[in-house]
Design goal:
By secondary structure, this protein is an alpha+beta fold. A hairpin with a 4-residue loop joins β5 and β6. α2 runs antiparallel to α11. The two termini are 32 Å apart. About 2% of the residues have low confidence.
Length: 384
């Protein structure tokens, strides 16, 4: 008998053996799949959301300069621009106007930002897809459409009515769900910010390697400022999503360790029927290596089947079902949740680590008790 034919016969016997105990094996595969599904879902979501954040931040300013008062961000005088522009390596400096507006009707905080394209459209705004749905007083949702008006309470107590000129694309909802673009005139009316001040300053430099040096020179000239680099923002996002993924994994650790106990008990404790089966195989001419190979294929079949189904289920859950089980934990708490579908970004290293910690241990654990039974005299095993 050729080696290939021998392997095929052992594999056929392994599959028939699994089918004889299909109830127990199906339950094990079901729990196994569920655990891998949970772990893979967290890994897929955290990696993909970090990737989305990094892609969004590619268009962010290389450096943002804020002014601090008593440790809190304050508006920054525009005359800082002239002294910062004189620093060697600075290509451009521009003021930026933005702020947060609490909407009592929806209970959400909107982000208002001045847009240069609305300079000649005073009284008009562009809104994000999340802003277009506001909670009405009777607890029902009402959609805001183009040409509708939205009231804004200004800082002097008056009410400013702004007309919706358009709604931002749903494709950009991850960054613009709570965004409202306004003209500089309307922004000043709402927040009463002096004309010679801005929320912060954004910089572009000629050489990205000089960013730390330029940031140090800015703080020397203006000790009340805080330069923030784009890379620092990206590292903060990574830390936040890593922390949330870690919290979720800690919550799931109880279920994971319960599965480890279940799988170890199943793998290391052969039943009397399985021991008798090994004794019969030994009596009919099977070698110890053949029995170990059979148990290896048995463990590999169960673990690989559960791994593939768990990975596939996690993929569908995260990238097609919008991660309905974990979104409130991993996205964070918010009144306005952006509705978006993550672009699949699969990290091969994470898949390899998940495979190593879920498939390899179970497969190896099935061989040890089988080796013990296979090395015992067949007659004594069958009498058990």
């Amino acid at each position: 008998m050729g080696a290939l034919e021998k392997q095929r016969n052992i594999l056929d016997f392994t599959l028939s053996s699994l089918l004889r105990r299909k109830g127990k094996n199906f339950a094990l595969v079901l729990v196994y799949t569920f655990i891998i599904f949970l772990l893979a879902s967290v890994l897929f979501f955290s990696h993909s959301i970090r990737k989305e954040a990094s892609l969004i931040l590619q268009g962010a300013p290389e450096m943002t300069v804020q002014r601090l008062t008593a440790g809190r961000q304050d508006v920054i005088p525009k005359h800082y621009i002239d002294s910062i522009r004189k620093i060697r390596g600075v290509q451009s400096v521009a003021p930026r106007l933005w702020g947060y507006y609490y909407d009592a009707l929806s209970g959400a905080n909107f982000t208002l930002m001045v847009n240069a394209d609305l300079k000649d459209s005073v009284g008009s705004i562009l809104i994000g897809s999340g802003v277009s749905w506001r909670s009405a007083s009777d607890n029902r949702n009402q959609a805001i459409r183009k040409n509708d008006t939205i009231p804004f309470k200004t800082y002097d107590g008056s009410v400013l009515m702004l007309k919706v000129k358009g709604i931002l694309s749903v494709a950009s909802a991850l960054a613009t769900a709570d965004l409202i673009l306004v003209s500089e005139t309307d922004f000043s009316k709402i927040f009463s910010i002096p004309d010679d001040h801005a929320t912060d300053l954004v910089l572009q430099v000629r050489n990205a390697k000089e960013l730390p040096t330029i940031a140090a020179k800015i703080t020397q000239r203006h000790p009340d400022t805080r330069p923030i680099l784009r890379e620092e923002i990206l590292r903060t996002y990574d830390a936040v999503f890593d922390w949330r993924a870690g919290v979720t994994l800690m919550v799931l650790s109880g279920a994971f360790f319960a599965f480890i106990i279940l799988a170890w008990d199943k793998a290391t404790g052969l039943s009397a029927e399985e021991k008798r089966e090994i004794g019969i195989l030994k009596a009919t001419g099977w070698e110890t290596s053949d029995i170990l190979l059979m148990k290896f294929w048995e463990g590999a079949t169960i673990s690989l089947s559960a791994f593939m189904m768990g990975i596939l289920s996690a993929y569908l859950h995260i990238f097609l079902a919008s991660s309905i089980l974990f979104e409130s934990v991993l996205k964070g708490w918010s009144v306005l949740y952006p509705h978006f579908r993550l672009t699949p970004h699969i990290n091969a290293y994470q898949i390899a680590v998940l495979f190593f910690f879920t498939v390899i241990p179970y497969t190896v654990a099935t061989i040890v008790p089988s080796w013990r039974s296979a090395t015992v005299d067949p007659d004594s095993v069958m009498r058990m």
